Amino acid sequence: PSSMSAAPSAVLNAANLCFGYPQRTLFTDWDCAIPPGVTLLQGDESSGKTTLLRLLAGEQHAQSGRLHCGGVWLDEEPKLYREQVFRTDPRAEDSASITPMQFLARLAPRYPRLDMSLRNDLVDGLSLNGHMDKPLYMLSTGSRRKVWLVAAFAVGATVTLLDEPFAALDGRSIAFVHELLQEAAAHPSRAWVVADYTAPQDVALAHTLELGNLP
């Protein structure tokens, strides 16, 4: 099955992805090659942006098609593939009783490149210092999303998938995340996919993916 080639300049390749729900089809023979840097994923409400991120992360199983990242195919080496790709859902409730510090500690075994020094800088930059030992359920929506962003930028994944990263953030934090993405845009071997309605300000995009309007 490895006879299908992956684009050498791309960090993540999707080939012939098909996925749909009983009520509608979202993707039919969908291909993409995500290069290093920042890729913007755009589409109207319910166009499938979050579903696509779940597919690329290997969390949602496509009905057919293949995904390749970090030298491995998802269908052949799922554990190794998922170690290359980071995505988490800031709306998830399954970890609400643990603290941000515990949440980040749980990621270390899966992402060996997690940078603890960078993590501390991110906690400071996002003004989370007073919240790291509180249960996540006690934090505001914005603060919980900041914890998710700390994880996203600290784990060192080959591909980082960000779903509306500026939602519910204060102005200072929005500016800080813009700076992080500006730095990410110049990375030679890692990719960030940002699903949002508009392009992040002053960030040089490597690629744009447009999802069509659905009936």
Describe the structure.
Helices cover 29% and strands 25% of the residues. It has 6 helices and 9 strands; from the N terminus they run E-E-E-H-E-E-H-E-H-H-H-E-H-E-E. Helix 6 (171-184) links the parallel strand 7 and strand 8 (191-195). The N and C termini lie far apart (35 Å).
Rg calc: 17 Å
Distance between the termini: 35 Å
Strand content: 15-25%
Q: What's the total number of strands?
A: 9
Across the major sheet, the strand order is: 6-7-8-3-9
Topology pattern, helix = H, strand = E: EEEHEEHEHHHEHEE
Determine the mean pLDDT.
92
Overall shape: it is globular
**Helical element count?**
6
Helix content: 25-40%
Model regions low in confidence, pLDDT < 50 over at least 5 residues: none
How would you sum up the major sheet? 5 strands, parallel
The structure class reads: alpha/beta
Task: Set out the fold topology.
Elements: E1 12-21, E2 24-34, E3 37-42, H1 49-57, E4 64-69, E5 72-73, H2 78-84, E6 85-86, H3 100-107, H4 116-125, H5 141-154, E7 159-163, H6 171-184, E8 191-195, E9 205-210
Parallel strand pairs: 3-8, 3-9, 6-7, 7-8
Antiparallel strand pairs: 1-2, 1-4, 4-5
Helix pairs in contact: 4-5
Quick rundown:
The chain is of the alpha/beta class.
Key words describing this protein structure:
215 residues, globular, 6 helices, 9 strands, alpha/beta, 4-stranded antiparallel sheet, 5-stranded parallel sheet
